[in-house]
Amino acid sequence: MAPIFVKPYLKSNKNDRNDAQAICEAVQRSSMRFVQPKTPEQQAVLHLHHGGRLLVCQRVALNNHMRGILTEYGIVLPQGVKVISRRLPKLLEDADIPADAVVATLPCQ
User: Fold this and answer.
1) Which residue in 11, 58, 63, 91 is a FRET match for 49, CA 20 to 30 A apart?
2) How far apart (Å, rounded) are the C-alpha atoms in residues 67 and 20?
């Protein structure tokens, strides 16, 4: 059952007990519409999409972290994954950056 259809039956503040009462009240209505449960295949596809979104977020966070470390040493790079992947190896060879900072900027292998 979609939450939007249960909301009118909520009597007071949101908690588990009140939610359960509202669901029971809504289910007893003959005009109530229900949400079709997802098949295992549909759930698997949703998990793949969610995993992809997580990977993108982590990649952006890692790139921002690397750019931040390099900025502390006077190396300013524009935003973008491709910029980091193209320019980072050469920058780390040429720049005068402590070895510990270089290790901190390298992505996990």
Assistant:
1) 63
2) 49
